[in-house]
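thought: fold this chain, then report.
action: predict
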Amino acid sequence: MLILPETPDDHDAIFALTQAAFKDHPHSLQTEGHITDALREAGALTLSLVARVDGRIAGHIAFSPVQISDGSAHWYGLGPVAVLPGMQGRGIGAALIREGLDRLKAMGAAGCVVMGEPAYYTRFGFAQMPALTYPGVPPAYFMAQVFTHPAQGRVAYHKGFEAAA
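observation:
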């Protein structure tokens, strides 16, 4: 497996695999591929990586800036992260997350937030932080990881997350 930054030639494959990965997810509105496209179009994809297996894109991860009500800078949101359905369970998503977090740290990020399954994301160092909130989501499912500078307040994702199908 190779993990590389996305290229313009990857965009259609990223969209297709993201939509396929979330097709039967119980908490998905089927907008994840559109979210990635909207973030890209807005210039808000701080980091966008693909996992290639046998030359084919098997997974993708996106990181974009988030705003925190205390004004903290250099915080990012992880997501969407997607792996082709037939390739799930092989560690591709985990490798993308680890590589993405390492690259964010190397870029000088202060921290990262994620909305997702605690049993999965805690193994990458994410934890619930009561000082950071995201309205409308059960607190256990909104987690953060501090790299250099803690923050506190309400978190707002980029408006690209409002993209619809």
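thought: worth noting. Helices lie at 11-22, 32-41, 92-106, 118-121.
final: tokens above.
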